TrEMBL record:
Domain EthD: 20-91
Gene3D superfamilies tied to this protein: 3.30.70.100
Molecular function GO labels: oxidoreductase activity
Lineage: superkingdom: Bacteria
PANTHER family the UniProt entry points to: BLR8190 PROTEIN
The name this protein goes by in its record: EthD domain-containing protein
Length: 105
């Protein structure tokens, strides 16, 4: 299992983010295209700040759980152009994508 974090930069000079489009159009597209390709879970989180009150470094994050790295790579090859091509419709900046391996403790 892997967790893919798609993080949209925030901070004091953050690009505008169209949350309505993201939740009503983009994330349903992600689920529709990738659920049959190993996407098990999707969680969207919106930043509200940092402990010291400064703007959060990322304003929005999508946390995508895939069965395997291979599944994620195949899903990206099949539909990544369409999904990543939709980003300018809600965010003009460049998201940061990170692949994570969940750990048990």
């Amino acid at each position: 299992m892997i967790l893919v974090s798609v993080m949209y930069p925030g901070g004091s000079d953050a690009q505008p983010f169209d949350l309505d489009y993201y939740l009503k159009h983009h994330m349903p597209l992600v689920r529709e295209r990738w659920s049959s390709m190993g996407l098990d879970k999707v969680e969207v989180v919106k930043a509200s700040g940092t402990p010291d009150g400064s703007p959060a470094p990322f304003q929005m994050m999508a946390l995508l759980t895939f069965r395997s790295l291979d599944d994620f790579q195949k899903a990206g090859a099949a539909h990544g152009k369409e999904i990543f091509g939709d980003i300018p419709n809600f965010f003009k900046g460049q998201p940061v994508v990170q692949i994570n391996e969940p750990q048990s403790f």
